[in-house]
Automatic annotation (TrEMBL):
Residues 32-127 form the Lipocalin-like domain. Keywords: Signal. InterPro entries: Lipocalin-like. It comes from Flavobacterium agri. Residues 1-21 form the signal peptide. This is Lipocalin family protein. It comes from the Bacteria.
């Protein structure tokens, strides 16, 4: 009888810790609205082992490059670089976005819309991916961002 009670109590405590470990940055409450620093790119060919590469585009002496999703549906892709006077300058591609469930559609500067699948969205991290075919092979590229 005591072993059964101990097992039930242990199980209840374990479930309590498990439920408590699911933080507020998990699940549907997270919002895409905000500024997101480029962090890394993950590439996978035909479902093989993914290759992860840290983002190398940040200009030394400038803030990090980022994407910004605004509440009104506007979108900005910002790359910072030092101009000839060594002043950090923004190069911006503007556009619009729409998010429905885990589908993200981005249209920059009136170009054709691009559709991505959001694979992770928390208060601190955004991941979205797209798959294309090249030479009969499926290439999946996932961009990983960290919240500013």
């Amino acid at each position: 009888m005591n072993k059964t009670k101990l097992t039930v109590v242990s199980l209840a405590i374990a479930l309590g810790f498990l439920a408590n470990s699911c933080g507020s940055d998990d699940g549907p409450g997270a919002s895409i609205v905000g500024k997101w620093d480029y962090f890394k790119t993950i590439t996978q060919v035909e479902g093989q082992n993914p290759i992860s590469q840290n983002y190398q585009g940040n200009e030394p002496g400038c803030d990090k490059d980022y994407q910004e999703f605004l509440a009104d549906g506007s979108y900005r892709d910002v790359v910072l670089f030092q101009n000839q006077d060594d002043v950090c300058t923004e190069s911006v591609d503007d556009g619009n976005y729409a998010k429905e469930g885990d589908v993200l559609t981005v249209q920059e500067n009136g170009e054709n819309p691009q559709t991505y699948t959001i694979t992770k969205l928390t208060d601190g991290e955004l991941r979205y991916s797209s798959t294309t075919q090249n030479g009969g092979l499926d290439f999946t590229v996932t961009l990983v961002f960290r919240k500013k």
